[in-house]
Each structure stands twice: as C-alpha cells, then as structure tokens.
Amino acid sequence: MTDVTDLASGKNHTDENFPVASFLLRPEHRAPVMAYYRFARAADDISDNAQASPETKLELLAQMRAGLDGQGAPEAMALAEVMAARRIDPVHAHDLLDAFVRDVTVTRYRDWDELIGYCRLSAMPVGRYVL
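^ that's the sequence the OP posted. Answer follows.
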C-alpha cells in the first residue's frame, strides 16, 4: 500500500522560492512553522504526484486529515501535537487539505469567485497559521 512518504518529492524548506521559518522569526516560533511546512509539503507532494491515481491521492490526503485528529500520517500527527501544545486551532490545516483535495478533483474554475474560493483554502491558511 502506498503511504505519504512514497510520494515525497524530496523537496525541503531550502528548495522553496520563499523563506521558510526565516531567521526573522523568533527562535521559539520556527519549530511550529516548520511543522506546518512539513505537513503542507507532504500534502502538496501527494496532490501533485503525476504517477499516483486520484483515488490514491484522496486516500493519502484522508490519512493526512486523520493525522490531525491523532491517527494518520506522521507529518499531520506532528503538526497536531504542535498545535495542541500552543492551543492553535487546526482549521488552517484542514482548509489547506481541502485545497489539496480540490487540486485532485477540480481541473478548472469557472470564474474569479471560484478561483478566489480556492485561494481562500490554499494560500490564505498558510499566512493565517504563521500569523
């Protein structure tokens, strides 16, 4: 059976075109940002994988979601621990997973409002979590 690590791109925070957990953040805030990054990177690798079937992708994204609740993908479980320790609502992680599900199931947005609806689930949760 395929698991989250089987679809990993090998990309990490130093390969991104934006700073992740920048030195501008206070040191105590970097670990929570990195936990969210690892979660987001794993989910993105799932949804973007060219070889995995849509069914496999959706199953693995469901494992990511289950990890936020305690039993599932390790990256999600690690983020859940960080969020619980800091009393951070998991809504932004769930929203991001909703965006990745759309990446698998939606091929085109009809109009601007639908596209912004997708952005509300994809880009915006990352910024909200960091803030």
